[in-house]
Amino acid sequence: MMFKNGLRIWLTIVTVGLSISFASAQNQQLSQADSVDLQSMLSSPRRALHTFIYWQQESHERPGLVAATMKLADAPRSEKLGLARKLLMVLDSRGLIVEFNQVPGNPAYTDSLSGLQQYTPFPRALPKVSLVRTDREWVFSRATIDAIPDIYRSTFSVFVDVVLDNLPAYMKDTWLGIRIWQYFAVFAWLLIGLVLRKLFEYILQNYANRLTQKTRSQWDDRFVKIVEKPAGFTFAMLFYWATYSNLMLSVNVNYYISTFFEVAVSLGIVWLLYNFSDILSDYLTSLTTQTESKLDDQLVPLIRKTLKIFIVVLGILIVLQNQGINVASLLAGLGLGGLAFALAARDTLANFFGSITIFLDKPFQIGDWVKTNSVEGTVEEVGFRSTRIRSFYNSLISVPNAKMADAEVDNLGLREYRRLKTVLNLTYSTTPEQMEAFVEGIKAIIRANKYMRKDFYEVHFNNFGPHSLDVLVYCFLKVPSWSDELQQKHNFFVEILRLAKDIGVEFAFPTQTLHVDSFYGEQPRQVGERHSEEELAGSVYAFGPNGEKSRPEGPKLHHDGHEVDFSVNADTKTRGS
């Protein structure tokens, strides 16, 4: 019995000794393996970041390797792992994806700006987080380790930590790759954002409007109305952008969420500035309405369109720049195709510079009656590309500004006087006295009309026509518009009709008179009175120089025994066109 008991004790001691030896050898082997791993896994910034992220995943955790990246921290291993875990949560929740192919793989990497062996993975988002080289290993700097608690607190709300610590275990289970509590958190997060937007717009609608109604100016009322929608949208997007990290979703999901709301905030600001351009346009309109020129009224819509295009283009460039796209190189690339673009847009550019020429030269204004070789009508609008003219049969004609700037434009709207030229046809039964009375009567009508030019007009018995005696009427109206011109022509012609009726003359129309001669045997019909040669010679002499019937300046009419002279003083006449 004693032998058996001694044998058992001896076997137990041998077994324990072998186990201890085996465990010691295994631990020594693992320690050597970790040492070999650290030499390679921290050899460059790329390897160090990979070690920090990869070995914290749930399926293959190696705390020793992770803690080694925090070797500069004066803390126990558990605290180092806690710091590493917080930093990884910050990267994931902010959607900061490490592009390993862009991280330097050179063990001797040196920052070109500072000249130090230091690498900052996210210089814009996390400038305080950097790796440094020490003892041939790349690890997180001491400044990074000291900043991790503050970075964590700025990323996650204290309220979220308190809620997570008190959640039941089943709420932390995953379904479709997302934890149960995160479904409720996303719903509450979206709801809070919408409520805050409505609350913000309500404050603008009520309290801001109350303040603006107390002022005399209308611009502040217009301002509040303009900014209400874009400001509410921007406020909500800012809330979402500032708080999405508390959802603690995966890094890929957070990357897209961050990008979306960053772009949304930029678009909200562009929307706000876009609406501001309307306020500026209204202000400029109030200034241009006080001027006499109408072309500056059309310049305001042109400025508004240009400003809106500028704001949109600038907003797109800012969004692209914020997304890491090098706008300068993009513009340089566009410059390479500038020649082809210029050739393709040659007509567009020509029309644009044509519009600038029109605004600088001012050949016409809005509302002017213009006439070119191809179009005639009233100018309604001058745009970037074309000038819109309303024809007299009410169609709208668009003329490219390049052609409009080069064309010979007859601006009938800038006339000081509007010419009236017509020929009145009187019948051949009109006597010389009636003709003279008719001509002088028209001159009297012109002098009586306040819309007629008084210093120059011509009214004369001008021609013996094939069927009428022709009277030329050449005068000018001083009226502001085509409608007024038509009205005064109407009034003038009605006065002429009344004059003709009063004098007893008739207006002729194209006729042909057929005379059928009568034959009395061999004797022809006698035409006119028979006069001797001496009588005929006397008539010629009477109408000659100083003759008793001579009236080279025209016969004079008499009223109450006095000769009436309706002629215009030749010294005061000025020729018109």
Structural descriptors:
577 residues; alpha+beta; SH3 type barrels; 5-stranded antiparallel β-sheet; 3-stranded antiparallel β-sheet; 15 strands; 53% helix; rod-shaped; disordered N terminus; disordered C terminus
Can you summarize this structure?
With 577 residues, the protein is an alpha+beta fold. The chain has 17 helices and 15 strands. Helix 8 packs antiparallel against helix 9 (251-288) and helix 15 runs antiparallel to helix 16 (482-503).
Write up this protein.
The chain has 577 residues and is of the alpha+beta class. It has four domains: 123 residues, no CATH class; 162 residues; 75 residues, SH3 type barrels (Roll), CATH 2.30.30; 123 residues, Alpha-Beta Plaits (2-Layer Sandwich). It is built from 17 helices and 15 strands. It has a five-stranded antiparallel beta sheet. The chain has a three-stranded antiparallel beta sheet with strand order 1-2-3. Helix 8 runs antiparallel to helix 9 and helix 9 runs antiparallel to helix 10.
Helix-strand layout with pairing:
Layout (H helix, E strand, L loop, with lengths): L1 H40 L3 H10 L8 H6 L8 H17 L24 E2 L11 E4 L2 E4 L1 H14 L2 H8 L8 E2 L2 E2 H34 L5 H25 L7 H38 L6 H28 L4 H10 L1 H7 L1 H16 L7 E3 L4 E7 L3 E6 L4 E5 H6 L3 E2 L6 E9 L5 H17 L9 E7 L4 E9 L4 H22 L29 H10 L14 E3 L2 E3 L13
Antiparallel strand pairs: 1-2, 2-3, 4-5, 6-7, 6-10, 7-8, 8-9, 11-13, 12-13, 14-15
Number of strand segments: 15
Q: Between the first and last Cα atoms, what is the distance in angstroms?
A: 151 Å
Low-confidence segments, given as residue ranges, are 1-12, 14-36, 568-577
Number of helices: 17
Q: What would you call the structural class? A: alpha+beta
What strand line-up does the widest sheet have?
9-8-7-6-10
Helix content, binned percent: 40-55%
Largest sheet: 5 strands, antiparallel
